[in-house]
Amino acid sequence: MSANSSNFIMLKRHILLFIFMLSQVNSEQGDHIHTTMQYTKDNFSTEIQKKNHFIMFYAPWCGHCQRLEPTWEQLAKMSNLEDKNIKIAKVDCTTDNSLCTEHDVTGYPTLKFFKAGETKGTKFRGTRDLPSLTSFLTAQLGISLESEDEAPTPPEPVNGLLELTEDTFDKHVSTGYHFVKFYAPWCGHCQKLAPTWEELANSLRNDNYVSISKVDCTQHRSVCGQFDIKGYPTLLWIEDGKKVDKYAGQRTHEELKVYVSKMLEKGNDQANIMTENLDSTTHTVLSLTGESFKHSIENGISFVKFFAPWCGHCKRLAPIWKDLGKKFLTNDNVKIAKVDCTLDVSKELCNEQEVDGFPTLYLYRDGLKVSEYNGARNLDDLTEFILNYIQPHDEL
């Protein structure tokens, strides 16, 4: 090798070393600028053992992720830089796909809270604004302060839907009626059924006779093995801990709801009362989603409540809204409806309709938004508001 070649190789090595050192300096400076922790498959499982974590699973090309980024950074500044037992972090699913698959990430962004020392997260389903995110964190941190000596109990239902685990399944299904979906996150048919299953749970959320739940068979194999689950999704009707029937019908919301009513009628006479109440409620206030919204409001007057289950003002309005629905029940030109903005199937709709707080009350005529209600939330004022938009021939 010539002297010139040796000198060229040495020079090249020095240049590469300088570039590497410069990148390290820039990286360290960047760590001071950004307060959001960036986790990978190499450090994720170690870090979430140390503290409570709120993780954003994202893809760089995702528009919703890009819009959330400044809010997420603001949340991180509030939490990461203060002496709190919570870290705000994120995982890039385009570079750590296996990690995201392991945590059932099927859309972007997916936000999950991980309690310190636990590997299974609680999914955030609200609107992605700072007050909603901080409210969710406050609630989760409140739960995390409870005694760890307590026996495991099922988490609170999200819109009526329970996520059961190996620790909570047997106790939960030991008494009563249960309709359970056994699934795998990677299963295409399961992904297609997911919004319908959430809608079913939501429509039965106030029922005291049946619970709608789901079990991830990739995480809780012993439960699925107990019921000999061989395909996904498998929908089982369970009574007092025992399998009674396997559902084999069409997987539409209406067909599933009819099946529930039929199975309850078989169970005991008291279920007939529940079924009558369910049908009455369904016709009094329409439960709409992103899929059914446009078609449902295209004719006549539609007064729609956009809400979140955890919202205190929404809870106080709920019985009044139901009474409002009863008041206009016989008027074919007026529909009283509601949209749960925490459902995955409705989040995009709520964003499109510019819902930035709960409850938001919009009035539509023939599919077009004509007014937002900002008055007192009592039955008389709400009724008068609707009457102002009804044509003379549409009287009660």
UniProtKB/TrEMBL annotation:
Instruction: Pinpoint the Thioredoxin domain residues.
Output: 11-142, 144-263, 264-391
Q: Which residues form the signal peptide?
A: 1-27
Q: Does the keyword Iron-sulfur apply?
A: no
- Name one cellular component (GO) term: endoplasmic reticulum
Supply the Pfam families for this chain: Thioredoxin
Has UniProt tagged this entry with the keyword Repeat?
Answer: yes
Keyword entries, A-Z: Redox-active center, Repeat, Signal
Q: Can you supply a Gene Ontology BP term from the record? A: protein folding
Molecular function (GO) terms for this protein are: protein disulfide isomerase activity
Q: Which family does it belong to?
A: Belongs to the protein disulfide isomerase family.
State the name under which the record lists this protein.
Thioredoxin domain-containing protein 5 homolog
